[in-house]
Amino acid sequence: MKKTSIEDLGILIHDTGRLLRKNFERRGQAFGLSTAQWRLLVRVVRERNPTQARLAELMEIEPISVSRLIDRMEQGGWVKRCAHETDRRVKRVVPTDKSLAAYSKIKAVAADLFEDALQGVDEEQREVLMTALVTMVANLSESLPAAEPVD
């Protein structure tokens, strides 16, 4: 393997993310959801009933695109919209039992994919990798202006 330099960092991170997405898409297609739908489902479960505006922010897509995506997922029985507790104009997106069951299964698919991706990387190297990535995210997050609250 060729020696890499810090100049290769961006390309390596990009290629790793792209290959993880492609492999995940291939492995997860048995569930009948697109990559965008999986991304939304994961965010809905992890964020615990986010608003549509929050989902748009998290997924970095336009609110109208999120709304259309939610429409399709709602028709498929994956999520449902519920009224916000204090603001009737705002809708929260809630996972259904169907999506919670699929989420549990897809976590296993993701774990297998990550294990395959990390073959040949020992535990100490994995810990260093995770620590470095967490630090990079924190460093880069600090340099961004604070987001306006969406709720």
Would you report the number of β strands? 2
Would you state the CATH class of one domain? Mainly Alpha
Strand content: 5-15%
| Averaged pLDDT | 89
Description:
The model has no long low-confidence stretch (mean pLDDT 89). It is globular and about 55 Å long. It is mostly helical and 151 residues long. It has a domain at 29-102: Arc Repressor Mutant, subunit A (Orthogonal Bundle). The protein has helices spanning 9-28, 35-47, 52-59, 63-75, 97-117, 123-142; strands at 79-83, 91-95. The chain starts with 8 loop residues before the first helix and ends in a 9-residue tail after the last helix. Helix 3 crosses helix 4. The protein is built from 6 helices and 2 strands; from the N terminus they run H-H-H-H-E-E-H-H. Strands 1-2 form a two-stranded antiparallel sheet.
Give short descriptive properties of this protein.
Arc Repressor Mutant, subunit A, 6 helices, mainly alpha, 151 residues, 63% helix
